[in-house]
Amino acid sequence: MKSTWRSKLGLREIQRLLELDRAVIYAITLRLWQLASGPVSILLITKFLTKDLQGYYYTFGSILTLQMLFELGLSTVLVNLVAHEWAHLGLSSDGSTVRGNPEAGARLASLIRFSDRWYSLCAGVFVVGVGASGAFFFRGRSDDIAWQWPWWALVITTGLSLKLIPRIAVLEGCHRMAEVNAVRCWQAVSGNLAVWTALALQGGLWTVVVSGIVRLGWELWLVKVRFRDFLEQVQQLNGPEVITWKDEIWPLQWRIAIQGLGLWAATNLFNPVMFHYHGPAIAGQMGMTWSLITAVQAMGGAWIATRVPLISELVARRQFRELNRLLLKLTALSVGFLITGTLAVLGGLFILNQFFPRLANRLLPIYPTAVFFAAIIVNQLLLTQAYNIRAHRRDPLWLMATTVYLLLGFLVWYTGSSYGATGAAWAYFSIITFIYAPLHTLIWLRTKEFERTIDQAPDSANAD
User: How many CB atoms neighbour CB 464 within 10 A?
Assistant: First the structure.
């Protein structure tokens, strides 16, 4: 009994030190699965897809990320605004009824109604705009690859998922991050199994569509089944208080939207540039490598991303000392994990090059991959800064970030078109390290000074 008690105490202590709650555990489990399933996917893609098909496979995904431009940054704003209102609300002891400040409830309900209308419009515009743009981009590239029907099926499936984003953002802001991340884990596992089956059955580009359908199915279950009653109850919290889009959403949203345009150019142009200038085979190498890099990055960022509602709550309650302690710890855990993951991936690539050259040929060489990872590590140091800044429902980063992102996108296009993936990697690392990081940190230091001012005069300062 005593040893059992001690072991349980030790486990709780480890969880506390590593900031491991259910949301983080699910998020890390998701990324671990993605890393573990990645080699299986690479093997199957290598076996069942040609190099050219692999290029289409990953370039489809890069173009579909344009959805972030159509939503104009609203999902990022939603999580923060919902968390600010939920700080004054909660559930009854049996978990069946939403209770708390009536004004906060009314404002939250108005936010849900507005976001539903916004995303319905976005989904329609996305299907038409991105569908037509992608069709134009791929037109005439290869007469041997039937990409048209899979492309349009994938665009429509993604458009339907886009409609569900506001409801999922509301759940995250209402501290349902653990449940949302659990569903994302099941999405990943079942999605991979479906993709592997489709590849083995010679599904070709329809494999991407299968993945999108699985994702949509889980999101529908989360919103329409698992949390249907909760979302309907919150939406019915009517009252005179409403959130006004012009005054409370748009000032932050348009800044994030402009940054989204630059961010897309900075992080999603790699595949289209390689596809256009160097062919689908090189684009396939770039896409497979970048998906591996972003999986490691997302795993490292799991500690931070799952704490966005808590960060916003601490700002709303002006608990800045606790906020600083949390941010420092999350940054150390996140960056430490990312460095460990980077070394593991680079070691794995070395082994592939030595013993499995056919598989290694489907990925970028170690040199540009290492440069990309170095840039990602620098960028990870800035992640908690950005969440801290935006938790104040302000975004002084927008002009600097947009300018840097667009410059980065231009250099990725210029160097990538002339020098391939190695040129794009060095452009990415140089801009992130020597321009973006210093400017980002200066703006964050101004935010910390603002917080110290509020902390010293809590009765006269306004955190919002």
Answer: 10
pLDDT of amino acid 323: 87
When pLDDT is averaged across residues 155-159 and rounded to a whole number, the result is 94
d(CA 305, CA 423): 30
Q: What's the pTM value of the predicted model, to 2 decimals?
A: 0.69
Q: How far is CA 196 from CA 145, 191, 361, in A?
A: 20, 9, 20
361 or 306, higher pLDDT: 361
Contact present, 314 and 323 (Cβ < 8 Å): yes
206: which 2 tokens? Answer: 């329809």
For CA atoms 316, 405, 126, 70, give the dihedral sign.
Answer: positive
What gap in Å lies between CA 134 and CA 106, rounded to an integer?
41
Sign of the four-CA dihedral 342, 345, 351, 355: negative
Domain ranges of the chain: 273-458
Burial of 366 from C-beta contacts in 10 A (0-12 / 13-18 / 19+): middle
Cβ atoms within 10 Å of 462's Cβ, excluding its own = 5
φ/ψ region of 89 (left if φ > 0, alpha if ψ in -120 to 50, else beta) reads beta
